[in-house]
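Action item from last week, closing it out:
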Amino acid sequence: MERYPEILTVTQLAEYLQCDKSTIYRLIKSGEIPAFRVGSNWRFRREVIAQWLEQRSRPKKNGS
């Protein structure tokens, strides 16, 4: 992820996550992914996305 700039666009994030831009917009709409607006465009902090990915990739404890 180091080759990407500090602030990512929807297109850059979709490329990095290897998914469609519509998936990114769905995650934004549901509040599942940390994002902010610059005017009418969505942006993502690279460091925050890295943390978000780390949290999502951890196995969930099942209460035992």
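Closing note: The longest strand covers residues 41-45.
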